[in-house]
Amino acid sequence: MKLRWSIPYHMLKPLVLVLFHLRIRGVENLPKKGGCIIASNHISYLDPPLLGFASGRELYYLAKEGLFIEVNKFFTWLIITYNAIPLRRDGVDLGAMKQVFGVLRRGEVLVLFPEGTRSKSGTLLPPKPGLGFIAWHAGVPVIPAYIRGANAHIGDILKGKEKITITFGEPYYPRESKKDYEALSMAIMERIEALSHGDSPR
To answer: 75 in helix, strand or coil?
Structure first.
């Protein structure tokens, strides 16, 4: 873990646990080393940093290209510093894919949000086939994750009226399935959905 990641992690994690009433379950399912993919539902802008604090490993993220130019210079610096990889939405972004597979080959952790966008209602959206494509070709385990409560009003979270829970499920190995990107994405999404009910399919 690089210093720019480890120092904020160790300094801020106790504060995040208290302020956001963050509960973490199933962290033992995350490999302590080696490349893997965390595939999570997406309900809030808080999701990426919360997954970072919950996982205990340095994470890399795919983020839509517009975020790097549409907000402000500080935000751009922040997401670049903390490993966001810009992704074009139109067609196949070969540059982004090269970075993604490089990250996984180096034994790092990549976070993917299969829905491709935030769910404003909190209801799981259909997954994009890109997850299945990356998971199959990377040949690394996929760790399903479910975030609950991060989309609540920030005041309710800070007051403890709403609590945030992040649950990590058991590893899923795409290479044990057929080479069908849409089916793989659906299989991973089913594992995320199962976590929302307190279950984890094998």
So the answer is: helix
Q: Is the pTM of this model over 0.70?
A: yes
Count other Cβ atoms within 10 Å, centred on residue 92.
Answer: 10
pLDDT tens digits along 12-68: 999 999 999 999 999 999 999 999 999 999 999 999 999 999 999 999 998 887 777
pLDDT tens-place string over residues 130-179: 899 999 999 999 999 999 999 999 999 999 999 999 999 999 999 878 88
Delimit the domains of the chain by residue range: 3-196
At the topology level, CATH places domain 3-196 in: Glycerol-3-phosphate (1)-acyltransferase (3.40.1130)
3-state secondary structure of 19: helix
Nearest to 143 by CA among 117, 108, 167, 179: 167
Q: How many whole angstroms separate alpha carbon 133 and alpha carbon 141?
A: 13
